[in-house]
Amino acid sequence: MRISDIILKKRKGYSLSKEEIEFFIDGYTNGSIPDYQASALLMAIFFRGMDREETLSLTMAMVNSGNRIDLSGIKGIKVDKHSTGGVGDKISICLGPMVAAAGAPVAKMSGRGLGHTGGTIDKLESINGMRLNLTQEEFINNVNEVGISIASQTGKIAPADKKIYALRDVTATVDNLSLIAASVMSKKIASGADGVVLDVKMGSGAFMKTIDDATELAKEMVSIGEGAGKHMVALVTNMDEPLGYNIGNSLEVIEAIDVLNGKGPEDVLELSLEIGSYMLLLSKKFNSLSEAREKLLSVIENKQALLKFKEMVKIQGGDPEFIDNPELFKKAKNTLKVISSNTGYIKHIDSEEIGRAALLLGAGRENKDSIIDMSAGVKLIKKVGNFVSEGEAIALLYYNDSGNIEEAREKILSAYTVTEKKVTPSKLILDVITKDNM
Q1: Catalytic site residues?
Q2: Which residue in 192, 238, 387, 434 is a FRET match for 73, CA 20 to 30 A apart?
Q3: Where is the Pyrimidine nucleoside phosphorylase C-terminal domain (predicted)?
């Protein structure tokens, strides 16, 4: 078998066999296939596409390029969730403790942020002492002891994906549906959970900009997961405005704590309840979404979810006092109000521009070596549907380095669209994809 023949076959639009795909993944991972040939095949895939059988073969080849986490030592049906990335997306931080408090074991491997979308691991590291680099034994023991653990993905999980993604990033082959789906699902399958709920973002702050593209990606990932023996549900959700009000690492953890205290933003709570209900359904703890939702609301009301978060923080070396007293989080030295020059109703907030503003303030990474400022970020004061007067504040910027402050302020202003007519916010949950309705 020769890689040049595989490249030619895909360039002509033919489907690749499982063996041909495995040959490519094995060869590129071990270095016998060079970057220039891998790039050629990725470009052929980008233009010619892959069918679902090819995409499943690609995913499983990437899974088998590294270690698979064995979670059989954890009692019960283990559940996980994954978001395709958005602005202000702190859902995992409040959702995990809610689901664990409701009785389902949550074993979650998470990643770091890059660009304008934040990572769960970065956010949790704003808690003093918090350890996210856990051994597999620690990870499993923590779930058995407190019902939940969130840990960073290791380089031994799907190493082929890491290598291929770096190549896609520099060859303009990132935004291909099959390559995206295989990248996400290879890590989820290798992470070992029995059931996974996917949050596929759509809109200005998401990778998928249209409902059709997001729905197709959701279907592709559900198909891959089910083909690999996982129980899958995917929600297509709106990212045409940021989730909640806080964007930035410690700011988002504080807002997640607010949710667990029963006083968080309505959209963050609603999405947590929706995803959490499906996670509980996959765990077989409840027979209906309404029962699962009721249980999640009860663990917020009786503070069991908040207690579960504190238990997870403590067992992973973090200071649980941060959860009881968010004033302990590191604060930015400076703040700046962004003032509206218009009067009317907020029609739209460009999430990507808000994320870029937070990035300029130091809350994100321009590249993998960037150092994050945990205290920097943006707090929205006005959201879609709100009325704003000229001279009124629409957002508050938190920063330590003033070098990009004016550019960040301009990005916030450009993100807001104001109209004279009253506006109703768009739906948050746009579609739900299961194996039965694809």
Answers
A1: 82, 161, 168, 183, 187
A2: 434
A3: 345-419
- Amino acid letter for position 59: T
Give residue 394's identity as a one-letter amino acid code.
Answer: I
Query: What domains, with CATH codes, occur in the chain?
Result: 3-49 (1.20.970.10), 79-325 (3.40.1030.10), 331-419 (3.90.1170.30)
Q: Are 270 and 139 in contact (CB under 8 A)?
A: no
Report the 10 Å Cβ neighbour count for 157. 23
Quote the CA–CA distance of 141 and 130 in Å, as a whole number: 17
Neighbouring C-alpha atoms within 13 Å toward the C-beta of 393: 11
Q: Which residues contact 75 (CB under 8 A, 6 or more apart)?
A: 105, 144
pLDDT tens figures, 40-85: 999 999 999 999 999 999 999 999 999 999 999 998 999 999 998 8
Nearest one of 434, 437, 438, 429 to 211, comparing CA atoms: 429
| Strand partners of residue 106 | 79, 148
- In sequence order, what are the residues at sequence separation of 6 or more whose Cβ sits closer than 8 angstroms to the Cβ of residue 14? none
Dihedral over Cα of 315, 321, 322, 326: its sign: positive
Give 325-339 pLDDT, tens digit per residue: 999 999 999 999 999
